[in-house]
From TrEMBL:
This is CMP/dCMP-type deaminase domain-containing protein. It comes from the Bacteria. It comes from Candidatus Enterococcus mangumiae. Residues 1-128 form the CMP/dCMP-type deaminase domain. Keywords: Metal-binding, Zinc. PROSITE patterns: CYT_DCMP_DEAMINASES_1, CYT_DCMP_DEAMINASES_2. InterPro entries: APOBEC/CMP_deaminase_Zn-bd, CMP_dCMP_dom, Cytidine_deaminase-like. It holds the Pfam family dCMP_cyt_deam_1.
Length: 146
């Protein structure tokens, strides 16, 4: 039951990105249900840490009243998680990440993935091991910034 990646989840997030004009991330529970959805609120909140992934993790942890999510929880994001978000994924005990778009298709925007998600997850694997699926359904979203 708990297998990834799931096209239905990423399709929904990509659709939301186009509607909300924000990168979208979601925490998926161990029954493959969406527990929380986050969008980027850096400007609205005047908070440089309010990235979509961090917001999704915050919401999920609040819902479950925990700082560390149970086994089998995954995070989906429409863009490669930055070093901040990749670290938050480790601290939250998330077991896997699926992301779609990546900095190669960021257009003229600054590349904030100065350390790749893969590298952060590898370096932090002694704290918590996180599986990674990159560029999932990228053809559906890679034109977004260009
Ligand atoms: Zn981030």
């Amino acid at each position: 039951m708990n297998y990834h990646p799931q096209e239905s989840i990423m399709s929904k997030l990509i659709q939301l990105q186009r509607q909300e004009h924000s990168i979208i991330a979601a925490v998926i529970d161990n029954k493959n249900m969406i527990l929380s959805i986050g969008k980027t609120t850096v400007f609205i909140d005047n908070d440089p840490t309010s990235h979509a992934e961090v917001n999704a993790v915050r919401q999920a942890c609040k819902k479950l009243n925990t700082h560390r999510l149970p086994q089998g929880y995954w995070l989906y994001s429409t863009f490669e998680p930055c070093p901040l978000c990749s670290s938050a994924i480790i601290w939250a005990g998330i077991d896997g990440v699926v992301y779609s778009n990546n900095p190669a298709y960021r257009g003229k925007e600054q590349n904030w993935s100065f350390i790749s998600c893969e590298e952060v997850l590898q370096k932090g694997s002694y704290i918590h091991d996180v599986s990674l699926i990159k560029d999932f359904m990228i053809d559906e979203i890679k034109d977004y910034f260009t």
